[in-house]
From TrEMBL:
Belongs to the TRAFAC class TrmE-Era-EngA-EngB-Septin-like GTPase superfamily. EngA (Der) GTPase family. Residues 3-164 form the EngA-type G domain. GTP 1 binds at residues 9-16, 56-60, 119-122. It comes from Chryseotalea sanaruensis. This is GTPase Der. The chain holds residues 1 to 164 of 436 of the full protein. Associates with the 50S ribosomal subunit. GTPase that plays an essential role in the late steps of ribosome biogenesis.
Length: 164
């Protein structure tokens, strides 16, 4: 079976930045829609000899409260169906938000291996803040990462490739 990893999470947590870091093909992927990725992007990545496909899910949510819910559900269900493992990105600067909880509730229904990446942990002094996301009650290890400078991503990928 092909190894397919989906990156999910609410808008602006850094999904596209993280995706670009994993696939190391920045120029091909950065979208021109002011930080908003409308479509699903597919890229190819390699870590310690393991090859896998990465999906950057849209995360583009608009409209009323209940629209949020249904769009999140749709995005996550698609990702779960298609992927062999899921990375749930959250933003360490914002902490746990209501929309993170909405994502968590859908992710709870997945049987796929799940990893939480607490993004924007740009400096080691922020690492402890990642523990806050245990509040989401997911059966997933939490990795403080910085999509921007790459810190912590190796630790996450080491565990991720073990699920292949
Ligand atoms: P997406 O909407 O989830 O795809 O998020 P983007 O990848 O478009 O990033 C949203 C914003 O967060 C952009 O301004 C990024 O530069 C910023 N960002 C992404 N990753 C990091 C990070 O690790 N550290 C910091 N400080 N900013 C980040
Ligand atoms: Mg994006």
């Amino acid at each position: 079976m092909a190894n397919i990893v989906a990156i999910v999470g609410r808008p602006n947590v850094g999904k596209s930045t993280f995706f670009n870091r994993l696939i190391e093909k920045r120029e091909a992927i950065m979208d021109d829609e002011s930080g908003v990725t409308r479509d699903r992007h597919y890229g190819y990545a390699e870590w310690t000899g393991h090859f896998f496909t990465v999906i950057d899910t849209g995360g583009y949510v608009t409209g009323s409260e209940d629209k949020f819910e249904s769009q999140i559900r749709k995005q996550v269900k698609l990702a779960i169906d298609e992927a062999s493992a899921v990375i749930f990105l959250v933003d360490i600067r914002d902490g746990v938000t209501g929309m993170d909880k909405d994502f968590a509730n859908v992710l709870r229904t997945s049987k796929k291996p799940l990893f939480i990446a607490a993004n924007k942990t740009d400096t080691p002094d922020k690492t402890m803040l990642a523990n806050e996301f245990y509040e989401l009650g997911l059966e997933a290890e939490i990795f403080p990462v910085s999509a921007e400078n790459g810190s912590g991503t190796g630790e996450l990928l080491d565990e991720l490739v073990k699920t292949f």
